[in-house]
Design goal:
- It comes from Aquamicrobium defluvii.
- One of its GO terms (molecular function) is ATP binding.
- With 226 residues, the chain is α/β, with parallel strands linked by helices.
- The chain has a single domain, classed as P-loop containing nucleotide triphosphate hydrolases (Rossmann fold, 3-Layer(aba) Sandwich).
- It is 36% helix and 17% strand.
- The chain has 9 helices and 10 strands.
- Strand 1 and strand 2 form a beta hairpin.
- 35% of the residues are buried.
Length: 226
């Protein structure tokens, strides 16, 4: 992916399987956000392809990709002030096949049932992030993109998110998670891909990648305080 003379991504290629959680890590400016924007359809790549279950979706809109089973959350919370938790789920499924019972079950599973009739701006930051995940999951996606799902969370909220990712997503749907918190990465991911300067610097099992001296040099050293 190029923006004028600047190449944000250079020959980045990876394959995420059903039920696999793949963490994408790297220092600021590594290309992580550009990558997830290409996968979700916000950006069209300068060259290369995006495929979903063997189908080329490179030119499809984000909405079309969502209907095919590719859902996403965003780094910055984007809920509607004044609307309740239940109303947000109704909004998320207006074009999908999910009845009221399905929505109630999801709220129970995500620990949000007691907040169903509360306006979202009265929720904690952690509960707002979990609601966003619920809105993506109510579409019953095959693959889910999580863009820094624990950003701004307390330790307790982060631990809750980790449990939800493990219990609700692992082994069920494919997940790409962009994350700075190494505790989240090591506890949730099956594989880790490291981006640096727009290219893949390393990829493999979390314990192997995070012990790689090259990875420590390019990423962990600059993120020691995360």
């Amino acid at each position: 992916m190029s923006f004028g003379a600047f190449r944000a991504l250079n020959d980045v290629s990876l394959d995420v399987g059903h039920g696999e959680i793949r963490a994408i890590i790297g220092p600021n400016g590594a290309g992580k956000t550009t990558f997830v924007n290409i996968v979700s359809g916000i950006f069209k790549p300068t060259s290369g392809r995006v495929t979903l279950e063997g189908r080329d979706i490179t030119t499809l809109s984000p909405q079309r990709r969502a209907r095919l089973g590719l859902a996403r959350t965003f780094q910055i919370t984007s809920l509607f002030k004044g609307m309740t938790v239940s109303e947000h789920l109704q909004l998320a499924v207006r074009d999908a096949d999910a009845d009221g019972e399905t929505r109630r079950e999801l709220l129970e599973q995500m620990g949000l049932a007691t907040f169903a009739d509360r306006e979202v701006d009265t929720l904690s930051h952690g509960d707002q992030r979990i609601l966003e995940m619920a809105m993506a999951m109510v579409l019953k996606p095959k693959f889910l993109l999580l863009d820094e799902p624990t950003a701004g969370m307390s330790i307790a909220e982060t631990d809750r998110m980790i449990r939800l990712i493990i219990e609700r997503l692992r082994g069920r749907i494919g997940v790409i998670i962009i994350e700075h918190d190494m505790n989240v990465v090591t506890q949730t991911s099956d594989k880790v891909t490291v981006l640096a300067a727009g290219a893949v610097a390393a990829s493999g099992l979390p314990q192997d990648v995070l012990r790689d001296p090259h990875v420590k040099e390019i990423y962990l050293g600059s993120a020691a305080n995360h």
